[in-house]
Write the structure tokens for this entry.
Amino acid sequence: MRITFLIIVFLHGLIHILGFVKGSGISEVKALKLPVSSLEGVIWLVAALLITVFGTLKSTNYRYAWLAGFIAVAVSQTLVIMFWEDARAGTLPNIMILLVSIASLGNFNFKKQVEAETANLLGKVKDTTTRVMVENDIKELPEPVKQWLHRTGAIGKPYIISGRVVQRAQMKMKPGQKRWIRASALQYSTIPVPGFIWTVNAEMNPLVYFMGRDKYFEGQGEMLIKLNSLFNVANEKGPRLTESTVQRYLGEMVWFPSMAPGKNITWEQVDDVTVRAEMNYKGVTAGGTFHFSKEGDFISYSAQRFMENSPDAQRFEWVLDVEEYGTFGGIKVPSRMTATWKLPDGDWTWLMLEIEDIKYNP
């Protein structure tokens, strides 16, 4: 679809050159019946160049391509109206360019908002020391957690202050959905001051996509989802969403093992391979249960989470299961995971997640 659109754009630009050819007297153009002055011919050439510039910028995903699109449509459609009898067919590609430019502007504004929020999040982390985690730091933790920390290789490594996680995912938006939606995501997390910004871009079909942002900042959770970067599908906040966000943040400790001895987290050992953790931050307390193998590898995390944010929302068990491990920055963490809701009508696995890269303290 993208290639087809770009082909239409470049052909549309080339057709504008016919107006320049006729206006400059280079050659007679039989397809154009109306007279074209030399000045109008130059304007036709300018429109051709503007459309070509837009197509080139769009093909490289340049963030300001939308601005070139708006200018190109303004000039081109003015000419179409002036030479309606000959050029009215140009209205359709101009509408296509206009719609794509509007969506690109929405994408630009969304990313600009996320960039500002990410800067605020990372700006909260003032500690830039590289203190190393040592055995004495974990002496008070339950044995399964100690064993896990050794298995990850986090002991002897600098404490993680922040992380940048590049993800690839497949998602289902509702129970019973057959088709998986492919998505890419990027997350920034901070540890000394708990928080994260997670953005996702998911394509539902060649014409419809959504961009989402989950945020945990200043102890509050937020969720924003925009259809085609323009229309709000969800814009949620509140105590239920915040509780669920804290549970998610706590579970993502498995990517940032040096969170474990944090002052906001308390641990309670259930058995030799199971430990419950609770996090209390800015008056919100929420928890979940970590399950480890006998060798000390993390294998799953479960929590009773609100599935929705409505006043009558109910808690259901939410489970993260590990399918594969990877090593990033010398630390062994889950690299493939699934997320499943345990619902009365049956399990709903809604997310298959793959970690492509993690940068610690970037």
Observations:
- The first strand starts at residue 162 and ends at 171.
- The chain has a mean pLDDT of 94.
- Helices lie at 2-23, 38-59, 65-82, 84-87, 91-123, 143-152, 239-251.
- The chain is about 35% helix and 35% strand.
